[in-house]
Design goal:
alpha/beta, Metallo-beta-lactamase, Chain A, seven-stranded mixed sheet, 9 helices, 14 strands, globular
């Protein structure tokens, strides 16, 4: 009887393990996911061979929890991490992520900031010998699954938000524009510089829905908008932006209300 019980227990354990393994290996699709990281930003660009993260949110453990929902739990590698600019709600989670993941490459914008936490981040990756490079407008990356164009910055602007790395991503026949915390001045500049080429299917709303971003003419270039936002003292997203989106009949998704937004 004891042997039978032992065999039964082992069978249950093996079946549970197989179920977990099969379920975990289903997470090998190709997608872009706008993570729910609270008041901050983090976007996962994923395929079976490559994991890229655009910004890491304010809290690393929250971002890691989101990543675990979408990727293999035992795969603790991030191939490329982009940090758009030195705001803590965009880079703050990097410290926990560095402790728990192997990062093959970090990409930042070329303009150094005096923000103290950001300087600690730069010192940390140097000490840990994590490769990093700077990219600016005109640079691009390409894999078998996606093309990533750096469309901003092209020079140093007045503040860190305006110097945000802005990416245009072509993936699975769809186009995405990831915008950091750019304001209406930079939006206008992008339209003047790229014209119709700035158009995309999906827009990451700049600066979490700040009223100083999301000009109507800029918004008219996109088919769908995602607002990455959480509880905050800034009243993001501002009512003016929501009213603008509604007036334009531009559908949008809020991560604070609806969670992760995924596009396959």
């Amino acid at each position: 009887m004891k042997i039978l019980t032992l065999i039964l227990s082992l069978t249950i354990i093996i079946n549970l393990f197989l179920f977990w393994y099969i379920f975990d290996n289903l997470k090998t699709d190709s997608f872009v996911a706008f993570l729910d990281v609270g008041q901050g930003s983090s976007v996962l660009v994923f395929n079976s061979k490559l994991k890229l993260l655009y910004d890491v949110g304010p809290y690393g453990l929250k971002t890691i929890n989101e990543l675990n929902k979408l990727t293999k739990i035992y795969n603790r590698t991030l191939d490329v991490v982009f940090i758009s600019h030195p705001d803590r709600d965009h880079y703050g989670g990097i410290f926990d992520i560095i402790e728990r993941y192997k990062i093959r490459l970090i990409i930042i914008n070329p303009y150094l900031s005096s923000e103290s936490g950001y300087l600690k981040f730069l010192e940390l990756i140097k000490n840990k010998n994590i490769p990093f490079i700077t990219l600016k407008a005109g640079d691009y990356l390409e894999s078998n699954f996606e093309k990533i164009f750096i469309v901003h910055p092209d020079k140093r602007y007045k503040n860190d938000n305006q110097n945000s790395l802005v990416l245009k991503i072509l993936k699975n026949g769809k186009e995405f524009l990831l915008t950091g915390d750019i304001d209406q001045k930079i939006e206008k500049h992008l339209i003047e510089k790229y014209g119709k080429n700035i158009k995309a299917d999906y827009l990451l709303i700049p600066h979490h829905g700040s009223k100083y971003s999301s000009n109507q003419y800029f918004l008219s270039n996109f088919n769908y908008a995602i607002i990455q936002v959480g509880q905050n003292k800034y009243n993001h997203p501002h009512l003016e932006v929501i009213e603008r989106l509604n007036k334009m009949n531009l559908p949008y998704w809020r991560t604070d209300l609806n969670g992760i937004f995924m596009v396959k």
